Amino acid sequence: MTLALPAALDAPRQLWRRFAGWLHERMPKGLYARSLLIVILPIVLLQSAVAYFFMERHWQAVTSRLSAAVARDVAGLIDFYDAFPKGEHRDIIQRIAGEDLSIDVHFLPKEPLPPPAAKPFFSLLDHTLSRELSLRLQRPFWIDTVGRSNIVEIRVALDDSVMRLLAHRTQAYASNSEIFFIWTVIASMVIIAIATSFLRNQIRPILRLARAAEEFGKGREVAFSPRGAREVRQAGAAFLEMKRRVERAMEQRTTMLNGVSHDLRTIITRFKLSLALIGETAETAEMKKDVDEMERMVEAYLAFARGDGGEATAETDVAAMLDELKTDTERRGLGAQTDFSGRRLVAVRPAAFRRCLANLVGNAQRYAKNITLTGVNDGHMLTIHIDDDGPGIPVERRDDAFRPFYRLDESRNQDESHSGLGLAIARDIMRSHGGEVTLEGSPLGGLRATVTLPV
């Protein structure tokens, strides 16, 4: 018995999880919409429940009294009919009913009453009026509260005829549906207006903080001052403090790297000067080659460590930059094509962005004969594809290609001054802009490097 209980609960648990997943997919995702839902929904539900139960109870009592009054009027007319000789009082009953009771009375020939109609489940009038007539009439009767929406029809079987009575629905029934609906709608609109105005003011500082953090992540400067609730101001102050620390760390790193760069360049310049004074020999030619390679490697290491983070953002013509890279590729004797669509100007750090593209194109130039540069700016995202027809990179090693100092093929690069930092620098630059660099197979048969940048 104890083992069967969890199995019996498994189906309801699965059903609940399925419903929770369905509800989660359809719930609003934004904080503003969720906050409105949290504030408004409980109030509207509580108000509707209170209004329904209390007002419905009140109107049920009113309907019961009205139905009892109609039942008394009908019973009185029946008693009046029985008290006088037959045939002499119908005109009087019709006149009294029409003038004093607002009920139309007709006498039909003696015939069986219509069969009882199906009672509507939610009809308060049908149940209440039937009960009151049963208490006051000792004769068979039939009522219709559905056939004509604003008229209640009552038929009572007499000894020699059938009395048909037509009364207005409002004489026996007090409807609260319109009042309830109007009250709920008006109150809900007031609540929504107040909650919307309040929450908009609370959400706006959070959106400003998110926008400032996003712009700072892209390397752009934006004016920001903490506002809003106490917790939001604390988060804003923490963001500004973090921003100051990051900028101070970047400034210190830039200063240190500038010093290191100056010292290393001074030493390399001394090497070059000494070799120039020695003269041209076979030994000095090899030494000059080593010094040049060391200079290029030092510049690559410093560029990777520096990250070009101190450069200011500016509107840059990306299409012109691609054309320059195409010209450089053709100058090397390789085939190149470019295509760009959309807005040409994009806010980036020009030197850093060009270095990113140059590293990707340079990687393609080393191993391919044809290169295609394609750019698209759709107003939301800048996408640049760099395709080549080279040997490509295996899928399982594409992530490793972005690791600093990692070489995919040592034997292929032994005779080249390749530091293994080109792709790492490109990805670092794009991530500092808030974008990304990915590798995949190219339609040309080689490698495709894709640069994506939110604009």
Order of helices and strands: HHHEHEEEHHHEHEEHEEHEE
Report the β-strand fraction as a percent range: 15-25%
Strands ordered across the widest β-sheet:
6-8-9-11-10
Q: How many strand units?
A: 11
| SS-derived structural category | alpha+beta
Brief descriptors of the model:
Heat Shock Protein 90; cell inner membrane; ATP-binding; transmembrane helix; Beta-Lactamase; Helix Hairpins; transmembrane; 10 helices
Describe this structure in words.
- With 455 residues, this protein is of the alpha+beta class.
- The chain folds into 3 domains: 57-171, Beta-Lactamase (2-Layer Sandwich), CATH 3.30.450; 230-304, Signal transduction histidine kinase, dimerisation/phosphotransfer (DHp) domain (Helix Hairpins); 312-454, Histidine kinase-like ATPase, C-terminal domain (Heat Shock Protein 90, 2-Layer Sandwich), CATH 3.30.565.
- The chain contains 10 helices and 11 strands.
- The strands form 3 sheets. Strands 6-8-9-11-10 form a 5-stranded mixed beta sheet, covered by helices on one side.
- β3 (151-157) and β4 (161-168) form a beta hairpin.
- The two termini are 64 Å apart.
- The relative contact order is 0.06.
- Its main location: membrane.
- InterPro entries: 2C_sensor_his_kinase, HAMP_dom, HATPase_C_sf, HATPase_dom, His_kinase_dom, HisK_dim/P_dom, HisK_dim/P_sf, Sig_transdc_His_kin-like_C.
